[in-house]
Task: structure prediction
Amino acid sequence: MDEDRETGTALNPRWDAAGLITAVVTDRAGALLMVAHMDREALAMTQASREAHFWSRSRRRLWKKGESSGNILRVVEMRIDCDQDALWLICEPAGPACHTGAASCFYRRVEGDRLT
Result:
């Protein structure tokens, strides 16, 4: 089964024990925007709508990125890694990706025990 998962053509995500898969989100230029998690429903809704949906581990519910801010992520392309346990969403963001208003959730640099 692993060989089929790694070299076959069927989408067969390897869900973790919580039923989630990690989703890495970049823009078309390759800038890292955010990392989130998807369950089966979030993946299906993303595929159907071409707008990113995720499973919020903190809120314990499905959410559409931008549902309150309007900063949706339009999915241009979706890829999965070799053993199908992580997704890569290439998106066109309709505004900042981070809830703080930053373009990316990765706006702070770690330098020793400080953030800059």
